[in-house]
Amino acid sequence: MSLALKLPEETKILQLLRQDKGAVKNDSVTLTDVTFLCKKTDNNNQILRARMSGTDVIIKFTYGERIAIRRLKHESQIYVDRLKPLWGIHVPKFYGFYLYSPLDPDELFCACIILQYCGEPAVSDLSQLKDYRSGDLGIKRF
After folding, report:
1. Which residue, of 19, 23, 81, 114, has the fewest CB within 10 Å?
2. Mapping DSSP to helix (H, G, I), strand (E, B) and coil, where does residue 27 land?
3. 3-state DSSP call for residue 3?
């Protein structure tokens, strides 16, 4: 399955191919009303909000740096392998990990994951939580 993604302020439409096997099934992926929530230019990460088949979603998007793409892929694996029983209850539903592999060597690799929009974050940094231990979720540093 593929996803056509047009970022705000861009003219090109990217065709990203689905890479995961365990996400919520969605036969037709159409994103509308795409807007930036956060542009992190230090490592080419962006967070966008959009509508997908009537559902509000968050798009975590990265491009260029392969390490950032690997981190996003690892995050998607955590959603599928460890958090699936909690989707829609304690963590957002996971709608897929998508990758754009350019044919032109001058273009950048891109990847994104699509998650259910659950409102504004309660805390922006997990380390602010009293009993937070990164090992509990299988989080590792690259």
Report:
1. 81
2. coil
3. strand
